[in-house]
Amino acid sequence: MAPSTSSTVNLNINGEKHTLSVDHRTTLLDALRERLDLTGTKKGCDQGQCGACTVLVDGRRTVSCLQLAVASDRREITTVEGLAEGDRLHPVQQAFLDLDGFQCGYCTPGQICSAVALIEEHAAGWPSAVTEDVRPQAGPPPLTPEEIRERMSGNLCRCAAYVQIVEAVAHAAAGTRTEAGEAAA
Ligand code: FES
Ligand code: FES
Fold first, then answer.
1. CA 106, 109, 115, 118 torsion: positive or negative?
2. pTM for the full predicted model
3. Do both 177 and 95 map to the same domain?
C-alpha cells in the first residue's frame, strides 16, 4: 500500500480549534489562507525572505510560508485576525494606524505580528545583534530605533514605510511599558 500523503492536523488558531486533513506539503500559510479563509496573513515571496507571512506560533515569530501545517499540529497560532479584542485594536495595530506605519498595507499584518513578539522578546531581556551589553544582569537594552530596525529586519516593506514603522513600534512598546509599570505600582 502506498504511504499516505495527507494527515489530519489540529490547529489552535486565535483561540479556536480547527481540524483539517492536509497534504503533507501544505504550508501553514496556505492552510491559513486557502483552507481557513484567514487571508490577513499575506504571501509575499513564499520563500522565507520577506516576512509578509509572519504569524506567532506558541508566541514566537514564524514565517508561515516555511512551516508545514503538519508541523503546526496542536501548536497555539496567532494571526493578525486574533490580535484585537472585539472592537479594541491591539496597541500595536493602533500605533500603526495612528502613526501611519504603512502605505499599501500588504506587509502590515506581518509587520504587526512581528512587532507584537518583538515587544515581548525585548521586555523579556532578549538581546539583538546590535545590543551592546548582552549580560543577563544588564536587563533589556533601551529600545532605540537601531534596536527596532535590527529586530524588525526580517520584515521587508516594498513601500519603504520604515521610518513610520519604527516610530509605531517604539510608540506601542512605550505604551506597553507604561501599562506594565502602572499595573505593578
Ligand atoms: S511570504 Fe513568507 S517570508 Fe515572504
Ligand atoms: S506598506 Fe506597502 S509593502 Fe509595506
1. negative
2. 0.93
3. yes
